[in-house]
Design a protein that fits this description.
Layout lengths: L7 H19 L4 H11 L1 H9 L7 H30 L4 H13 L5 H20 L3 H18 L10 H19 L1 H4 L4 H21 L15 H21 L5 H8 L1 H7 L4 H10 L8 H25 L16
Helix pairs in contact: 1-2, 1-11, 1-12, 1-15, 3-8, 4-6, 6-7, 6-8, 7-8, 10-11
Length: about 325
């Protein structure tokens, strides 16, 4: 059985978002970077999921797909580092308890349990309401988003990042609507795409001038100015998808990262500490400047490539892949 044909520009777009995530982990103090990338960094993954979302499949099949593509990788990638550490280092009871707490609360790879809950909610909304009353679906998704913003102010929404999943209904809906009306996107000229890009930059500069020191964080649900943040999210994600789709941007290195975002997401966070330690052994105190961060991000992407290939070949289930079926020669 052949797998579904991948869409090159979507893989490249995911690759860009993943590079933004990695650079943000390596160089967390570069405020200007976060100002312009945070509105499209994490939300873009959800918007792309909404763009590719299928609500016309039976509930059991959908649950099975979510389990295989999200929960199985979460179980493996969350517990694998713990098992590896336990093989070499004696872990105390407190350390073991902390690992298990992070696992069951979703703290370690927060995006995966959040994505599971978000897609589950969105599936039932679109499955049973969308075909009859599209405006009602929009209102329900917006209501979930508003409720998520309120819930994020309390500790109740922290478990498995439920409040994030509720807010993500806006992102999923945006991608879903873009897919439904993608024919209209064909009429967008290059000038319109360039204009939207410039407008996004202008709004970002306006935000930097008006609200200095404030950055959006989708993980922490920090929307410092809700109208402005969601304006930038909407404009940024819409422009990114429209541009990549219109110009069919398919850059192979980015596409590779986009095809292996789970492996990059799970293992890139281990990259910086060993690098700093190695430099310290030779007496160099590594200061991660924005430029050094670019170099380290590139090295990190190359370092994660063989890990991705290894997991694809020997543990494909851990990154939501399937082994290709062998074809017998007649």
């Amino acid at each position: 059985m052949m797998g579904k044909e991948r869409i090159g520009w979507i893989d490249s777009l995911r690759g860009v978002a993943m590079v933004f995530v990695i650079y943000g982990h390596i160089c967390p103090s570069f405020q200007q970077f976060f100002l312009f990338t945070s509105p499209v960094k994490i939300p873009l993954f959800f918007v792309v999921s909404g763009y590719l979302f299928k609500s016309d499949i039976p509930p059991f099949q959908k649950m099975k797909k979510l389990f295989v593509s999200i929960l199985v990788p979460y179980f493996f990638l969350s517990l694998f580092p713990f098992k590896l550490a336990a093989s070499f280092l004696p872990l105390t009871g407190l350390q073991t308890a902390d690992v298990l707490r992070q696992f069951f609360s979703g703290d370690y790879l927060w995006y995966l349990p959040c994505c599971f809950i978000a897609e589950l909610i969105f599936y039932f909304i679109t499955r049973y309401i969308y075909a009859k009353r599209e405006p009602l679906v929009i209102l329900i998704c917006l209501a979930f988003t508003a409720a998520g913003l309120v819930l994020s102010k309390t500790s109740l929404g922290n478990f498995l990042y439920i409040s994030n999943a509720m807010i993500a209904q806006f992102y999923l809906l945006m991608g879903y609507e873009m897919k439904k009306h993608e024919a209209k996107l064909e009429s967008f000229s290059n000038r319109i795409v360039i204009f939207l890009t410039i407008l996004y930059i202008i709004i970002g500069c306006f935000s930097m001038k008006l609200l200095p020191g404030q950055n959006l964080s989708a993980r922490e649900n920090h929307y410092y100015n809700i109208p402005l943040c969601f304006l930038m999210i909407t404009l940024g994600c819409f422009t990114a998808i429209t541009a990549f789709r219109k110009w069919d941007i398919n850059f192979k290195p980015l596409s590779f990262i986009g095809k292996n975002t789970l492996a990059y997401y799970a293992f890139s966070k281990y990259f910086l500490s060993p690098v700093i330690y190695i430099f310290s052994l030779i007496g160099i105190s590594l200061k991660v400047t924005p430029f050094i961060g670019i170099i380290l991000t590139a090295v990190c992407c190359m370092a994660c490539a063989p890990i991705s290939l290894f997991l694809n070949k020997f543990f494909p289930f851990s990154v939501a892949k399937r082994k290709p079926c062998s074809v017998q020669k007649s």
